[in-house]
Design a protein that fits this description.
By secondary structure, the chain is of the alpha/beta class. The chain has three domains: 3-53, no CATH class; 93-112 and 225-487, Purple Acid Phosphatase, chain A, domain 2, CATH 3.60.21; 136-218, OB fold (Dihydrolipoamide Acetyltransferase, E2P) (Beta Barrel), CATH 2.40.50.140. It has eleven helices and 21 strands. The strands form four sheets. Strands 4-3-21-20-11-12-13-14 form an eight-stranded mixed sheet, with no helix packed on it. Strands 5-15-16-17-19-18 form a six-stranded mixed sheet. The radius of gyration is 24 Å and the shape is globular. Bound molecules: fe (ii) ion. Fe (ii) ion is lined by residues 242, 244, 280, 325, 327, 434, 436.
């Protein structure tokens, strides 16, 4: 078999058919190894054209104070509609289209949670049922049985993981629980397994030992589903987070520079019709010890008023969508409800207030917006990741189809009868913030954005030797299905 045939076979294995030019391109880039990279990065494209596989790294640019021409364009692999290229439109195109915004899931519900054991049981049952439905659709989980019905021999079952611990021989031991019972599992593969995840296992069950020797772990994961998602209208979504208005480390000048650009309706902002803010809208009060020493605005209402003033003269064709974060006025435990009426009424114009997390669609693109509280846990629990690899942690969320897989580590969670943190709908775009870094990645066709902040390094961060990466805006053009990144 020559290399071309080998590459084609590998593509077919992943149900991909490609244009001949694409096959040549893949061979140039390392052949089969590169196919695997493509599958990992872009997912099943079905039929790949040359355009699909061209390097799609984001365009990084910097704007001047007036939002005028670019000072510098870095890491550009392909500039299309980016800085330096004059728009063919004489007025903002975003104003020419109608809104197409639909809320799919909002957790601002009036559900009762007393915090007793029964509430926690209901929450975990709900998590289990939702994820079990996803896992058992997988071919390798055919014939899965509940734990109480396992029989000696080859078995498949689904459960919630707890009490993971490494054995002295380097294997992993854990308990798996479903509503019918529990079973011990011994696993020697390389898959990461964290407590409270819902997973499927395949392996050999021994009733006398009360143990499954696990051969395969099946995570719910997201399917390879990326397929020409581009929309007709030339519309973009600007994605930011962690504004922290009220803090004396709020980057006022850079924030105002960004707003001037957004309002100008030119130099790339003419397509921006939606602005998403992933929480920590204001710095809040009493969030951490001695916070008052680092506040410029000491009243939380005045902090929101300041934000409302900033946003009130945005062009009337821009819709702002905001969710709360751990610095906002609502309860800290997740899911957090949308901002209350007394705050909402401070805002004029087109603003949608949703819960953290929230799922919605913009012109058919499905967004999951989550502040990102669990990133603080995942950074410690997933081997080999760091705060500058938030996209890897977001990949993990998609693999386990849960925004905060490990219960009660760093993220307080309200034991509602429904688990709103399950990623039931596969998003086109997953957005987080919270950790004040910036990351962009693609996992199986899903855009991953860990949105940047507008707060410079705080004393606390300095002490922790943590360097934020502020002032970056991710701009997703839905017409091109392409991410641009601008720094202000
Ligand atoms: Fe924050």
């Amino acid at each position: 078999m020559n290399e071309r045939e080998a590459v084609i076979n590998e593509l077919l294995k992943h149900e991909i058919i490609a244009e001949p030019e694409v096959v040549s391109y893949i061979i140039e880039r390392g052949g089969i190894k590169y196919v695997r990279e493509i599958v990992e990065k872009y997912g099943h494209l079905g039929y790949i054209t040359y355009e699909d596989i061209l390097p799609r790294a984001p365009v990084v640019s910097e704007t001047t104070a007036s939002g005028g021409s670019a000072l510098q364009v870095t890491a550009v692999q392909e500039i299309r509609g980016g800085e330096g290229e004059k728009s063919s439109f004489s007025k903002p195109v975003a104003g020419e289209y109608d809104w197409d915004f639909q809320v799919i899931l909002d957790a601002s519900v009036n559900m009762k949670a007393s915090g007793d054991a029964d509430d926690f049981r209901k929450l975990f049952e709900d998590r289990y049922m939702r994820l079990r439905n996803i896992i058992t659709r997988r071919v390798s989980m055919r014939g899965a049985r509940s734990i109480a019905n396992l029989k000696d021999g080859e078995v498949a079952t689904v459960g919630i993981v707890y009490e993971t611990r490494p054995t002295s021989t380097g294997k992993l031991m854990f308990e798996l629980e479903d509503p019918t019972g529990t079973v011990r599992c011994l696993y020697s593969g390389s898959e990461i397994v964290l407590n409270d995840e819902v997973i499927g296992v395949r392996g050999r069950y021994s009733r006398s030992k009360g143990l499954i020797f696990v051969k395969e772990i099946v995570k719910p994961d997201v399917p390879y589903s990326r397929k020409n998602r581009r929309i007709e209208e030339n519309i973009s979504v600007a994605i930011i987070s962690d504004v922290h208005i009220g803090s004396n480390t709020f980057l006022k000048e850079r924030w105002e520079k960004f707003l001037r650009w957004l309002k100008s309706g030119k130099d790339g902002s003419e397509t921006v019709k939606y602005l998403l803010i992933a929480g920590d809208l204001v710095d809040g009060i009493g969030v951490y010890p001695n916070q008052e020493e680092e506040l410029e605005i000491h009243d939380i209402f005045q902090q929101y008023e300041a934000l409302a003033r900033y946003l009130e003269d945005l062009p009337d064709y821009i819709m702002t969508v905001m969710i709360p974060g751990n610095h906002d006025i609502v309860r800290n435990a997740e899911p957090q409800p949308a901002l209350p009426g007394e705050i909402r009424k401070l805002f004029n114009g087109k603003v949608e207030f949703l819960s953290n997390p929230a799922v919605f669609s913009i012109h058919g693109y499905k967004f999951t917006l989550y502040h990102g509280g669990s990133l603080n846990s995942l950074v410690e629990l997933i081997p080999g990741v760091d705060y500058d690899m938030t996209d890897k942690m977001m990949e993990y969320m998609l693999k386990v189809r849960h925004l905060a897989p490990v219960y009660g580590d760093k993220v307080p969670i309200v034991p509602l009868p429904r688990d709103f943190l399950v990623i039931e709908d596969v998003p086109d775009v997953l957005v987080t913030g919270h950790v004040h870094t910036f990351a962009y990645g693609i996992y199986k066709g899903v855009h991953l954005v860990n949105a940047s902040t507008w707060q410079e390094q705080t004393k606390y961060q300095k002490m922790m030797n943590f360097n934020p990466d502020p002032g970056k805006v991710a701009i997703l053009n839905l017409h091109e299905d392409r991410m641009y990144i601008r720094e202000f």
